[in-house]
Structure formats: structure tokens, C-alpha cells
């Protein structure tokens, strides 16, 4: 079996990699010099031996790709000429799945992204469930049957809509979100139809929630159409403040491949039994040296699969 190594665009969001000091400077650079931005990203991918990308927010969003290349087809053709491909797109900036969610707007947004992906050569839209609320904040947000039933309804509507473009929906297990703990995953999987909703487990985030990513991967192997491979220091035992800084707060619990507690042999074995087994998406949040980090990730995976 041929393995397609991929990574999330977040891997390249460390300003120091660009000789810059702040994220704002990086965004400005990518906006003013899109050719230089994408040329460096693609060169780094090729140097690291990674050929797939997952689009997300920021410079690597669908909207910014369209500004830089003019069309999904042009973007896909440019990638293909470099031996690269789009694997997926993470809907990080999609309309919220709130209690009073605007379902038509959510569907229209997903359809637009699906049309882009289909034209660019990708196959999977990835999304997450809403974030939890900080423990002690009132009113509390309970992740219960009613919550999951509502979320499942939205997921079904998106999954059915994007299927018209040949795109699959995968829901990601994010720390401090409504799909973090193993029981969250169990509940959501039970409420969703596997024909319309897939799973994108993240080995790091499941670990940070006190779960076992290998056990989860084995239990839902036929629901997994993509997975994020990332290492973690262990369970987060404190109640973090869930606000605009939560994603930055979580980064201190994430480590380089092989430096954490994830059972890569078990995880790799479990992944081989999934529909998404041919793609290994190495996720690294704003790596100072993306090429070295991606090479290290590849080495971990190759050892586990040898």
C-alpha cells in the first residue's frame, strides 16, 4: 500500500519560519505576496517528502487560495505540477452550530467549500463541534442527548449536501470541544448515519481528554475517513478557560512526534483497518522548522509501519 503523507496548513503558521515576528505580519505578507507565500510552502512540502495538504483558516483558507490563484482549478493544477495535492479542508471559520443556528447559511457555506474542493481535487471536508464552556460559567453547556441530537441533525444536513459534489464530511475530535471525550465520540457516532457523517479522530486531542486514541480508532475504524496524527504529553487535568485563547493554551500539551505518550504502533495498526488508511495527515501547530518536524513525523510513522 502506498502512503500519502499530508499536513495541515497550520504547520506553516509560525512567523519565525518566515523571518517575521507576529501572526499579523505573516497574514499581511501572505496577502501582499501570495506567490512567495505559496512557493515557500510548496517547496517545504516537497523537501519534507509530504505531498498532501489540508486547508484551514488564515493564509491557507479557501477564500485566500481563491484570492491568490483565482480559481480552485488553477490551485489544483499548480499543486499537481509540483507533485502535490489537496487532501481536505477544515471548516474552521464556518457559521456556528449554535442552538439557533442558521441551517440554510451553514449548508450554503458547506456547499461552496465542497464545490471548491471537488474542483481542486480534494475529497474531504473536516469540521468540529462547538466548544464547551468553562466549568463554573453560567449558564452551563451540557453535552447531552439533546445537544448531540441537534448537532447530528446539522451534520446530516451538511453530509447530504456535500455528497452531491462527491465530497465526504468528517468530524474532528478537538480538545475542549463537544467532541473531546471518548463518551462524546460514542454519543455522536450513535446519533449520526455513517453514510453521511465520517470521523476524523486526532490522536493528540483524544489523549488530552484522558481517552485512548487507539481504542477509539479500533472501535470506529469503519467511520474513519481521515485522521490527524499528533503527539501529546498526556491528559489535561485542569479546567482551562475556554475563550479566544483556548487553542493557544492547548499547545503546551502538544509535543513533537515520538516525544509524547501516543502509542504509534497501536495507532498505526488501527489506522490500517480504516477507509482512510492511505493518508497520514501529520498535524503540527506552527512548527518553527516545518521541514524538520514533518520529516521527524514521517520517520515515526515509517518505523511504526515497518
UniProtKB/TrEMBL annotation:
Xylose isomerase-like TIM barrel domain residues: 43-298
Family annotation (InterPro entries): IolE/XylAMocC-like (IPR050312), Xyl_isomerase-like_sf (IPR036237), Xyl_isomerase-like_TIM-brl (IPR013022)
Superkingdom field: Bacteria
Any single Pfam family the record assigns to this protein: AP_endonuc_2
PANTHER family assigned: HYDROXYPYRUVATE ISOMERASE, INOSOSE DEHYDRATASE
Name this polypeptide is given: Inosose dehydratase
Source species: Kaistia soli DSM 19436
